[in-house]
Amino acid sequence: MLTVLQEQLAEAHGLAMAAAETVERVDSRVADPELGRRLDRLRLDASEARGRCLEAERSYGEELAAEMLAHANTVAERAADMAGVWFKAGTSPLAAWSFLAMGEAGELSSWSALCSLAEREGELAELAAWGVEVQRRHLELVLDAVPRLAAQFQPAAPCWG
Fold this sequence. Notes:
It is built from 5 helices and no strands. The chain is mainly α. The protein starts with a helix and ends in an 11-residue tail after the last helix.
């Protein structure tokens, strides 16, 4: 049985797994090269987060690591289900970017919870602090891009799709 700390690590891991798919979906709807570079940064950091989470999970032994990975996969599947509902045919670049912002905010929340738990437990604190910093940067990067993306559309033009 997982502890609250271990489960939270698996939650952060699962959201990092889901981030890769979300970034791909957003990337397919956004043509701006600068926004594409921002998405590449998110993609690389999500890959690093997955690797760091796997390493931390393995430190608990094979049985717990497998349980934590199973939980991470469940979280990733739930996130993919939400993305599937959001990213229907005709999803505009602005709506896609909004979903990305929601995902980044959710990841920051998950890593912040892990950080709080880790500080009190005395384990995973370095990983958790790293994750919070990365997610703060991601959320800022995504939110700062909203005006750039919105500027590509005419306010009085017909809606997307």
